[in-house]
Each structure stands twice: as structure tokens, then as C-alpha cells.
Specification:
Elements lengths: L19 H6 L16 H16 L5 H9 L6 H6 L9 H8 L3 H11 L13 H15 L4 H29 L7 H42 L11 E10 L11 H18 L5 E6 L2 E6 L2 H17 L7 E13 L2 E3 L1 H12 L4 E5 H7 L4 E9 L8 E8 L6
Parallel strand pairs: 4-6
Antiparallel strand pairs: 1-3, 1-4, 2-3, 4-5, 6-8, 7-8
Helix pairs in contact: 2-9, 5-6, 5-7, 6-8, 8-9, 10-11, 11-13
Length: about 400
């Protein structure tokens, strides 16, 4: 029998993972002999042993799973994982496909669209939540929605969900776990935080989703009342803005990975701050953010504010360069496609740091009230037949530079 700590040593009876009676009536493995306590001494060893015992005796986690979690250095995450619904009953993609009435390929594509690794057909790592998602996909298919459109929408949802999960994980990791907590204490704090905060996070996402969905339905209703805007494939005259971080790719040194994450989050927060009722944030992609608006002047205001707010962030955020183009684009599954999207991205590459560069169509749409323009010249972009007339955009007071 392993040398277990005395239950009387625990500060509270509620924290005891087992009692002397448990030891007498249950067969406990020798965690040390199983290699699960290697290189641990003193309080670290006691905390690991306490956590292993609780997971094995109370949660019914088998030795193989415990070994995998220890080797992956994520044992402290396992109680939260269990609290969030890790199922002991696992399915393979082939079994889920059969139960849901899908092809195996459709389910594999669904998992990949969510943003997770594409699974092998016999990979037994899926549970009832995955089966429910597969059945939901099948119901959409039966309603007549093309699978490729469903997967495109799922990729948008998956990308957003990953950022939301990352934000809440960082919140938990930085603000919930007490400084100096041992492995067992961290595991219990993570489990409690997950149980308490996940419902709040789900409610926040539900609120945001419903609010945006209602807003877009209202906009669609207004569009249907105007001739020429009917149909999902109709092009709309919009101004597109890209804001790009200067020198972001040079932050690729391994020692600066944490800084890269901080800068990316800061860029996203700036992008959210500069939007206004007429301007929407379409997406952020690492070192760039994309905005769209039918109102040319409102977009220029947001574009200039990108520079202003970015400068207010100080040295933590690299300099920004901003490009704007206008033309007909199509809105599909949360993104925009068309010539002005490609052109705005290329104009951004030509802009100087801390400046806004725009094509003549965007300038014409914004007008001269509130802005002044400096002729930069004509630029020939790859893939375009004619040179593009470019202007540097400032407010009438001269900002940005």
C-alpha cells in the first residue's frame, strides 16, 4: 500500500479526498509505482497524491487516463474538464455518423469547421454533445440548406468561439487561481470557476448573438423595402477598411510569443473601440482588422480613430497603417467578398505607418466635410488593369499625420 498522507492532516474534513475507511474498503493503486508521482517531493507530492486519489476514487477516472493527463501536464485541468461535461461514453465519427444519419465525411468536416483537428473515422473521443451537433447539422440539411453553406457558417462560429473561449480561459487563469496555489488547489479552483463562470459566459454569448441577430434582421427588413437590395447575392456599395500592424511579423521570436498574444488582443480591443453605429467590425486576423460600412464618411472617421486610439496605446501596440477602398461587395456568412476587399488590403500594404490611405471612390463617398485629402499619386497593383488613384486622409484639424 502506498504511503498516503494522514487524513487528519487536512485543514477541513470537507477537503479530505478519502478516509481511513475508504482505504480499508477500496483498492487503491500504487500511484508511485505507476509513475504518477515522479520527481515530486514534499507539498507538491502531497497535492498530486490528493488530486489523483480524488479523481480515481470519487470521479472514477481510470489509471490510463490519469497517466495521459499527467504526461501532458494537464492533470489540474481534469476536474474542470469533468465538470464541463467530459463523457465516459465515447463514440467514433463512424458511430456518430450512423446515429445522426450523416456521412462520416460530413461529421469530419463539421469538426474541422469548428476549428478542431479532423478526426480519424475510428477515433473514439466524441460524446453526446458531438452527437447532438451532428444531428443538428442533419436537420439543417433536411431543411434544404447546402452543406457547404452550413460548414462556412460553422467556421465563422468556430473562429469566434475560439476567441471567446480564449478570453474566458485567460480570465480564469489570471484572476481565479490564487498565487502560490498547489496542483490540487489549482484544480479545485479551476473546477469551481468553470461551474460558476461557464453559465455566465454562455449567457453573455447568447445575449450578444441575439442582439446582433435582431439588428441584422432589422437591417434586412429595411433592405427588402428598397429596390435593388433583394437577394443574398446582391452586391452592395460599401467602403472597406483594413488596419495592419507595422512590424508584427518581426515579433516571431520564441521569447516574444506572449507579447504577440498581447498585441493581437490589444488590436482587437482597438478595433472594437473605433466602430460606430454605421461601421461594423468584420474580423481580426492576427495583425490586421477589417471594417465595413455603406457610409463612407463614417468609415473614414473609424479609420482615423484607428490611428488615434492606437497611438494612445503607446509602445505596447506597434504603429498602424490603414487602407480604404470602395466598391460593390457581397456579404456572406459573416464576411465580405469583392474587389474593394482585395483592393483595401493591397492599399494598406502601401500606406505609411500612422496614416490612412484611400482610393478615389472612397474619398468621393466620404466627401470633404470633416476631412482633407493629399494626393499621393497613382499606384499599379498586381491583378488590376488600371492604376489606382490614392489619397492620404486626415481630419480637417490635420490628424492623423
Amino acid at each position: 500500500m502506498p504511503d498516503y498522507p494522514d487524513p487528519d492532516d487536512y485543514p477541513s474534513p470537507d477537503l479530505r479526498p478519502f478516509t481511513a475507511a475508504d482505504v480499508a474498503t477500496r483498492e487503491l493503486p500504487d500511484f508511485e509505482a505507476e509513475g504518477l508521482l515522479d520527481d515530486l517531493e514534499g507539498e507538491d507530492r502531497t497535492a498530486r497524491l490528493k488530486l489523483l486519489t480524488e479523481l480515481y476514487m470519487e470521479d472514477g477516472i481510470d489509471l490510463d487516463t490519469l497517466r495521459v493527463e499527467v504526461e501532458a501536464n494537464r492533470l489540474a485541468l481534469l476536474p474542470a474538464d469533468l465538470a464541463l461535461g467530459r463523457s465516459k461514453e465515447k463514440y467514433t465519427p463512424r458511430e456518430i455518423a450512423e446515429l445522426a444519419g450523416l456521412s462520416v465525411s460530413d461529421f469530419q468536416n463539421l469538426i474541422a469547421a469548428v476549428g478542431l483537428p479532423r478526426p480519424a473515422p475510428e477515433q473514439r473521443t466524441f460524446d453526446d454533445a458531438d452527437l447532438l451537433a451532428a444531428r443538428r447539422l442533419r436537420r439543417f440539411q433536411e431543411a434544404g440548406i447546402p452543406t457547404e453553406n452550413l460548414l462556412a457558417a460553422t467556421r465563422q462560429v468556430g473562429s469566434s468561439a475560439a476567441r471567446i473561449a480564449q478570453a474566458h480561459r485567460d480570465l480564469v487563469a489570471s484572476d481565479i487561481i490564487a498565487p502560490g496555489a498547489d496542483e490540487y488547489e489549482a484544480a479545485i479552483q479551476l473546477r469551481q470557476a468553470s461551474l460558476q463562470l461557464l453559465p455566465l459566459a454562455e449567457q453573455a454569448v447568447d445575449y450578444a448573438l441575439r442582439s446582433h441577430f435582431l439588428d441584422q434582421l432589422r437591417n434586412q427588413a429595411m433592405a427588402m423595402a428598397n429596390p435593388g437590395l433583394l437577394g443574398g447575392a446582391e452586391g452592395v456599395e460599401v467602403s472597406i477598411c483594413f488596419a495592419d500592424l507595422v512590424g508584427f511579423t518581426r515579433l516571431g521570436e520564441r521569447s516574444e510569443l506572449e507579447k504577440i498574444g498581447t498585441v493581437a488582443k490589444l488590436l482587437e480591443s482597438v478595433a472594437i473601440e473605433v466602430t460606430n453605429p454605421e461601421v461594423r467590425l468584420v474580423k481580426t486576423i492576427g495583425d490586421a482588422a477589417m471594417l465595413v460600412s455603406e457610409d463612407g464618411a463614417a468609415l473614414f472617421d473609424a479609420a482615423i480613430r484607428f490611428i488615434e486610439v492606437g497611438n494612445e496605446a503607446g509602445d505596447e501596440l506597434p504603429a498602424l497603417r490603414v487602407g480604404v477602398a470602395r466598391g460593390e461587395a457581397i456579404h456572406q456568412v459573416g464576411d465580405w467578398f469583392g474587389p474593394p476587399v482585395n483592393l483595401a488590403s493591397r492599399i494598406t500594404e502601401s500606406a505609411r505607418p500612422d496614416s490612412v490611405l484611400a482610393d478615389s471612390k472612397a474619398v468621393e463617398a466620404a466627401g470633404e466635410e470633416g476631412f482633407k485629402y493629399s494626393w499621393v499619386g497613382q499606384h499599379k497593383f498586381k491583378g488590376l488593369d488600371r492604376p489606382v488613384k490614392l489619397f492620404r486622409v486626415r481630419r480637417n484639424d490635420g490628424s492623423p499625420g
